[in-house]
């Protein structure tokens, strides 16, 4: 039995459902990627899994409890969210931002304990951002900033981290840096990673489990081998793809593609 | 996690502001319609003045100074909270319809309920407070969405709309009223410090004593609310509950202030703004500074206003300073 799953999830308003009758299980201590065309409901699904949106019907269950009835601070010790393009107020330092990740453990005025300081430093250390501790967040580059936000999530000492397109707006090297960091958190610390990704090859390379969505429904869910097929990609993205093998990682890779013509 | 250099800077600014406030208080005590010269201030304060001097200082000037200071503080704190929860630097207690709501309440009461002028003076803060609260509740109910909860943007838009509508209602009311009554209401609307007697202090001081520590207690939550909504939810903040509590706090503060001073705008906008420019966005640091700036600004405006040109209402003095500042802000964005 997995820790996190959804039950007959319908998300949206009235007749206009974005996600329809969705049942998925998120494998524990694995990297899961959610892929699909624009507007397929992947971000909406991520927001519902993290209680930002309340579904119209159905529910999300974590550790046997429905998350929408659960104490939100208790949940924050189990799961963290990194939204698509998070903003931070001007002048806020990296250390301060990461310290907000300690909120679920704080009481009263929010003074930081010795333990809090240790966790903050540890999170900065792991993400390779300790040297920026006293720098303002808005003075960092996109890739550095993304790692700082991941550090804030780590400061929550959570088991599951959700990321909405963590590589958007980053150059190729920084995209890889962020994904490798996430992989490290998964392999070395056993954290469950759930992320929405646009790049199929990145999904195939880093994810243990891929959920391919279209129009709010699952077309295919499984490992890279099962999802990265001509047939699935045709159904999901309406493309005619040429699938090969990555000569270095031996994972499936989309070499080139055309739009499916006609019909 | 805040650097100690920053905390020291905040302490320095607080001391400077306290000195400014003291200086302005002394200036205010020694100037005015009746003569009470500066060299007589200290003897009078220690009880060695004549009856007339004591009357001028203790019954006229001091209560007014204290009220003005407190009202400015309440407006600044209210503005700081509103700017935090709406994540909009241009938010001001006026946008929640507090000023206009109180204005209509006072106008209706004044025009349609004939009462003795003595008891009326003490009823006004109460009427203003209740109508301000009523207006804010109304706007709140309209902006509440069963699915999405309370959306700050909706609240601001509806607030601005309601303020306009109420101002319109005000004009209708005034245009049908007698000349003498209109003069009074116009003065009230312009933000004439009106409660200038010791009992009025009781209308505002308890709110500040309770709500300043409460807001500072919530400062860290305000910091987190100023990040995006998903981030705030992600770290386990109950955003609906916190927003509602903080809005109630802001409304209570603004309503208590408007009840003794009439409609005063810009303090709630300017004070938090200047404070943030001085010390940065951390709520626990800038809020105390904003409170002192707000108190000082209104005190300063009133002290100047009542001594030139036969008395200009503090609200107009503040607007004279505030409007250019507002335009500057808009241009800079």
From TrEMBL, chain A:
Membrane topology: Peripheral membrane protein
Gene3D superfamilies in alphabetical order: P-loop containing nucleotide triphosphate hydrolases (3.40.50.300)
GO molecular function: ATP binding; ATP hydrolysis activity
CDD domains, per database record: ABC_Iron-Siderophores_B12_Hemin
Cell membrane as UniProt keyword: yes
Record domain ABC transporter: where: 4-240
InterPro entries assigned to the protein according to its UniProt record, in alphabetical order: AAA+_ATPase, ABC_transporter-like_ATP-bd, ABC_transporter-like_CS, P-loop_NTPase, Siderophore_ABC-ATPase
Principal location class: membrane
Cellular compartments annotated: Cell membrane
Biological processes annotated in GO: iron ion transport
UniProt entry keywords in alphabetical sequence: ATP-binding, Cell membrane, Ion transport, Iron, Iron transport, Membrane, Nucleotide-binding, Transport
Protein name (record): Iron complex transport system ATP-binding protein
Annotated organism of origin: Parageobacillus thermantarcticus
Automatic annotation (TrEMBL), chain B:
GO biological process terms, semicolon-separated: siderophore-iron import into cell
Parts of the chain that traverse the membrane: 12-33, 62-82, 94-113, 119-143, 155-177, 197-217, 244-271, 283-301, 308-331
Gene3D superfamilies to which the protein is assigned, alphabetical: ABC transporter involved in vitamin B12 uptake, BtuC
Transmembrane keyword on record: yes
UniProt keyword list: Cell membrane, Membrane, Transmembrane, Transmembrane helix, Transport
MF GO annotations: transmembrane transporter activity
GO cellular component, as recorded: plasma membrane
Compartment(s): Cell membrane
Pfam families: FecCD
Topological type in the membrane: Multi-pass membrane protein
Keyword Zinc: no
SUPFAM superfamilies reported for this sequence: ABC transporter involved in vitamin B12 uptake, BtuC (SSF81345)
Similarity-based family: Belongs to the binding-protein-dependent transport system permease family. FecCD subfamily.
Protein name: Iron complex transport system permease protein
